[in-house]
């Protein structure tokens, strides 16, 4: 009896060894011998797409910032020009002041001529994306973002004449 129980424990030990070896060989077969650099290759493929996506998001954010700044500059320059006694030069200076907060060049601010009889003021701000964008000029050139603000002046135009 004693031999039988020893024999059983030896078989149990052997079978557990075989089972472990079998599991290892199955997982090794699944992986295959040629998958040693698979992670590196997958990263190289995905990394390019990821980098292009990040740079595209940065470029769109910068274009949106330029568009919003041009709208604000046109609006505040027109607000400066509608008050009595204001000149076109003052309106353009206000637009330049706002645009220069972020961009040092690459934009133009134009105001319609203003005199005593002017009823509407128009301020146009244009931003050349070739001068303010990072990567867009490599693919597209000559794009201009434009914003115009038109406002009625606050000058007296004889409403109360009898």
UniProtKB/TrEMBL annotation:
<keyword id="KW-1133">Transmembrane helix</keyword>
<protein>
    <submittedName>
        <fullName>Transporter</fullName>
    </submittedName>
</protein>
<dbReference type="InterPro" id="IPR012495">
    <property type="entry name" value="TadE-like_dom"/>
</dbReference>
<feature type="transmembrane region" description="Helical">
    <location>
        <begin position="36"/>
        <end position="55"/>
    </location>
</feature>
<keyword id="KW-0472">Membrane</keyword>
<keyword id="KW-0812">Transmembrane</keyword>
<feature type="domain" description="TadE-like">
    <location>
        <begin position="38"/>
        <end position="79"/>
    </location>
</feature>
<dbReference type="Pfam" id="PF07811">
    <property type="entry name" value="TadE"/>
</dbReference>
